[in-house]
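FYI - complex with nicotinamide-adenine-dinucleotide, inputs then prediction.
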Amino acid sequence: MKIGFIGTGWFANKHASILGEMNGIEVSAFVGTSLEKAETEARKWSNAKGYTNVEEMLDKQKLDAVYICVPPMAHGAIEKALLERRIPFFVEKPLGINDEPFEIARNIVEQGLITSVGYHWRYMDISKKAQALLQERQAGMALGYWMGSMPMVHWWRDVSKSGGQFIEQTTHIVDLLRFLIGEVKEVYSAYSSRVMESKVEGTTVSDVGSVILKLNNGIVANISNTCILPESHKAGLEIYTNEGVMEITSNLLRDNRGKELNEYRNQLDPYKVENEIFLNAVKTGDASHILSTYSDAVKTHAITLAAAQSALTGLPVSLEVEE
Ligand SMILES: NC(=O)c1ccc[n+]([C@@H]2O[C@H](COP(=O)([O-])OP(=O)(O)OC[C@H]3O[C@@H](n4cnc5c(N)ncnc54)[C@H](O)[C@@H]3O)[C@@H](O)[C@H]2O)c1
């Protein structure tokens, strides 16, 4: 299968390297913001070409699927171009920074197009383990966090480009919360700017924030984030249940049942797993193993947008929920 990439940055590179190790997959094209960047990326592959324009790439190459790995503000027209030509796509989170993904999601469902979104925490072995353990327990509340330093790519610190930390980064934890314990019906947030505005020029994102989430099933959650730290501290989700506390971070599930502590680690690389499952779906037409489709991910998007709105207005925001 021939695969095209839109974006030439860190994560386009990450996915392309994984695809490079798979049988039957040819990395065939890159679209970049300049021909130089696109061709530099393309030269790493024996048969790949560089373009500056998505339509041009799609006119000149017959691609089986496309990876979209661009910053949050660059979404919209790309997905619409792929939809028009019915080309399956894998898109990195977040889906965008505005309402456009809702319309795109409706069109994807109408067409039955195969899509996958890079919420890779869903593909971790320890998330599957947590899901199984939760079958036997009653969750009461959850505390999530993404406590780190500021990524130094220019677009990240500009709220009009990234949407802010909760939309751009902490979205992984919101999505994990939905995946493991249920849909969210209301959010209420407080954000503030304490450090980074005066430290890094051009910073307009809030650098601390806390979001309270009410779930449809009665569970209450709080997810907080900061990007003021000099080094990354921790990112994960704690679930408080009638049997104890389960803590999930990127490579460790600590199942703390009072006197008993069990620890589990990932056996497989979730990035490889999500790519294998997506490409297999494209090949066979069976998308049933994809754990994060565009139309599911748009629900996570709605929660993170609502959190930003609540922080601006100071009021809770209700969400439409269908379990
Ligand atoms: N799932 C994960 O763990 C994970 C990790 C890192 C990044 N990401 C996501 O991947 C996306 C990209 O992040 P990155 O780290 O690769 O950023 P980056 O800044 O390294 O790269 C972004 C690339 O997109 C290009 N670009 C911007 N607008 C474009 C457009 N309209 N058309 C084509 N190319 C365009 C830029 O020139 C750049 O090459 C972000 O949404 C980020 O959240 C996900």
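The CA atoms of residues 139 and 241 lie 4 Å apart. The longest strand covers residues 139-147.
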